[in-house]
Write a structure and sequence with these properties.
mainly alpha; two-stranded antiparallel ribbon; 2 strands; 6% strand
Length: 174
């Protein structure tokens, strides 16, 4: 005697759409976790190998590449607030990796110069100095970056994210 076949009840389209949306959100969340963990791992490696944070190393590398750079120019190069750059500089001076001096042209301005200890630190530091995320973003084509920017604006709006956080280096956040 044949067993009667059970009829499987199909889920309504709205339920299937909700499930698909939930699964897609979970996949994207996992991707964000991968990005954050890659960034965090890089900064941990930097700190373990050098004893300084990622943002400090990045600042040091910019100063090394631009001897005599000023505080405002450093902040601009790192896309951070001037006070953030000042705090990074203070730590680098205290650790004797850089020195500040008054500009010959404008005595109100400060010029930054890397000391030998800073150069030695840069030699042993794992790259990229800017961090793995900025490095990866720089390798994306313009169309991908534009699409990513547009999508992230929508996400940041939903998160009601504080715009001031955009100028805090990831190395100081993670």
């Amino acid at each position: 005697m044949a067993t009667p076949k059970r009829k499987t009840k199909e889920a309504p389209p709205a339920v299937e759409a909700d499930l698909a949306q939930t699964l897609a959100a979970a996949r994207v969340l996992r991707q964000f976790r991968q990005v954050f963990n890659a960034v965090k791992t890089h900064f941990q490696q930097v700190e373990k190998k050098t004893g300084v944070g990622g943002a400090q190393l990045w600042a040091l590398s910019i100063i090394h590449s631009n001897p005599g750079i000023g505080v405002n120019a450093l902040a601009q190069a790192m896309d951070v607030h001037q006070s953030t750059a000042s705090n990074l500089i203070k730590t680098l001076v205290e650790r004797e990796f850089i020195v500040t001096s008054k500009s010959e042209f404008d005595r109100r301005s400060v010029e930054l110069t890397v000391l030998p200890a800073g150069t030695r630190l840069l030699r042993k530091a794992p790259g990229p100095f800017t961090g793995v995320l900025p490095e990866a973003l720089a390798q994306l084509d313009a169309e991908t970056l534009a699409r990513l920017e547009e999508d992230l604006v929508r996400l940041l709006t939903l998160l009601n994210a504080d715009e001031r956080a955009a100028n805090i280096p990831l190395g100081q956040v993670l």
